[in-house]
Amino acid sequence: MSQRSIHSLFKPTSVAVIGASNGNKRAGKGIMKNLLSSGFSGPIMPVTPKYTAVMGVLAYPNIEALPIKPDLAIICTSAQKVPSIVERLAQFGCKVAIIMASGMALQTDEHGNNLLALTKQYAKRYGMRLLGPNSLGMILPPIGLNASLAHAGAISGKIAFVSQSAAICTTVLDWANNKGIGFSSFISLGDATDIDFDELLDYLGRDSKTSAIMLYIDSINEKRHFLSAARAASRNKPIFVIKSGRSHEGVKAAMIHTGGVGGNDAVYEAAFRRAGMLRVNDLIELFAAVESLAHSTTLKGERLVIMSNGGGPAVLAADELIIKGGKLAQLSETTINELNKVLPDTWSRQNPIDMIGDADHQRYAKTLDILMKSNDADTILVLHSPSILSESVEIATSLIDTISQHPNRHKLNILTNWSGEDSAYLGRKRFTKAGIPTYRTPEGAVRAFMHMVEYRRNQKLLQEVPLSIPDNIPADRNVARTLLQQAIDCGQTVIETHQAVDILKAYGLNTIDTWFVSDVEEAVNIANIAGYPVALKVQSPDLLYKSDVHGVVLNLTSDEDVSNAAHSIIDRVHQINPNAKIDGLIIQKMALTAGAQEIRVSVINDPVFGPAICLGEGGSEWDPTRDAAVALPPLNMALARYMVIQALKTHKLRDRHLPLGLDMNALCVMLTQISHLIIDCPEIAEIDINPVLAAGEKITLLDVNMRLHDSPQDNIGRLAIMPYPKELEQISTLKNGLTVMLRPILPEDEPKHLEFDNSLSDEDRYKRYFGVRSRMTHEEMAVLTQIDYAREMAFIATTTTANGDELTLGAVRASIDPDNTEAEFAMAVRSDYQGIGLGKLLLEKLIHYYKNNNTLYLTGFTMFENRNMASLAKSLGFKVSFDMEEHLIKMHMDLDNQDKYTNG
């Protein structure tokens, strides 16, 4: 995997400072001071015509006078000078530049050219990369590089921090230095006009020096690249994110700060969850997350034991744990008996463990030792409150000794809370120095623990095998899109229930029979045909909410009821808005609501992430992004289930326990169907379905409002997450007459794919995995089946057996590097289906795909023993070479020159 274009950002061997200075309070002096004091081993070359030397280092009058090409340049000049400097640096061969200047997007040169656009143009022309503008710079402690304007350096550690805010950078840095917490990299993105979160996440996700990633985000520019990179990185290490702009006012401020697009906070939250990231709400939580990440081991389970010298703090911790959805560990009888030997008779005899206020260092140490020896806990939280009867530093020292010498110290996590200020400070300092997480409050310690729990839960969710949506549910995109196009051709921007019925039915969604009528007399006639009871609604393009004018009347049971209701609605509309246009009336058969529950589902169009699905209970004041759980399409049954659980957990949806109320499977099917509709129909901008009637297994959409896009949409580009590419499905016939389906793999394929992998012979498994390989675990299989179609592709070949089951016969897969330069493939065919052309068919399919994806190279490796694979590759145009040292055969194809595979 390569990220050649930003390699020099993280591993520069030489640095040039353009605009270096000896003047006080000049950026050029601050940068030089930090570079020279941080221990960087490479040449540091100041460039300035003003001085012969800067801070004792020989200066060069211009870029062309530099003795070597710098890997990294730091530009400390005014914005007006930046474009020409970037052009000269790029021509000279510099790889990456950090731009400190701000306001470039708002300024022009003497010819009226935008400074930022001009700078990007020059850099792109010569392949140079840019960090910033408006960047504080970056610090890479492992190589002793401080190329920043920060007030202090950073300690070397395993956490990467990336921020769009320079002020947040310096605040976090100051706090971390006080705590003794170190970083693998510390990067200020600034306006992120070129190098952005996605490329940094790709690099840091693979960086062996980084074990966790922290992000501060104002706005996202490339939704799909960001989510793809975050999803890939979060599989390997936790990513914590703090996002500004939680309020409407905050969104506006964030847009001004970075010049980004303001998206909805609830949709950002959904995107972070979908990518497996953990969101923290403020700097206090961020600091707590850093503390836990810096010192904790991988969480094995969620059981927490709390031990304390006071009941009050222990109760506060327990309350916070339960409120956040955590679990108190149950103490075994053996553990209780052991604790009875070292604790006073008045101890709590349960978790939380109240050791009583006079607990000294010996009582603390013995209690912790017993808990660490037991198998009752995955994490132990040790609380201490100031007491005249005990010495907090002595207790801390005793606990540190106990932990460091204990044989089980690597099997579970120990968190501490020394409450108070002056009396607790030295104790917390001891824990920090010993690498044991410590917090100011019991609640803060619990929140840090729950961050670890949420990360563990997210990873399990990402690996969950979704159920398949029932086969008998249709999804006819052709019918739906034809109906939508007809509406667009008629100049419609809104589609209401009576028109939406057939669109929804094309996707198996259940609706109530609905009729549109133009006048009161026709309404009475249709009501007779429909059969009472019916509902009557007004249709007017000038009414956003019918309820505002009591424009919906239910349970009409006679001709007189319909006539009176129709006249009344029309009169009320004209009273409120005399100029309102009334298109007509809608008659709808009343649904049986006894024992059912009303909910609301919307699809909104977020300016950053595109379509987002919202689930809640509705109401006249309903704001879907405030009062609903939000998820990004595409949804499958597992993701839909998680959405419903989130809605229930956050009380956006309440189970009223009605006789025919909420059915989890039915809700998930409905949400998945709506997701399919949104993915397949780019004409739809927004949908509001209110109410949705949930009656057990039967879900009925009663009132539907669709808003259409004003102009044609890029169906793929509008979605934040690339959906299953159904257009790549292909039916082929093998030379033995067997019909097979070639298609991209799905998460639902995991059971069949595991069966396929297990069916390979020992010899085939040896060739496929380059050695003896045990059976795949669920976690490993989840990685193979739950792929990101924007980053990788896996085609499987399936056939239908005599009893109607689907059988996987073969698979080929490849992942591309973030630069889309090279894809590396691997392939396997079921042992008893080899020799009938299946391997050739799969590999040709992959070649076609990456050729059309504009990937430059396709490569693969196989063992010397697998000569058949090498022969197949050579017959399809691969160059085959032998690595005698590694005993491998390399297969390489230049896709740009393989015209034979342009179309597939």
UniProtKB/TrEMBL annotation:
Record keywords: ATP-binding, Ligase, Nucleotide-binding
Pfam families: Acetyltransf_1 (PF00583), ATP-grasp_5 (PF13549), CoA_binding_2 (PF13380), Succ_CoA_lig (PF13607)
Xref: SMART domains: CoA_binding (SM00881)
Keyword Cell membrane: no
N-acetyltransferase domain boundaries: 740-896
Keyword ATP-binding: yes
Name listed for the protein in its UniProt record: Protein lysine acetyltransferase
Organism whose genome encodes this protein: Shewanella inventionis
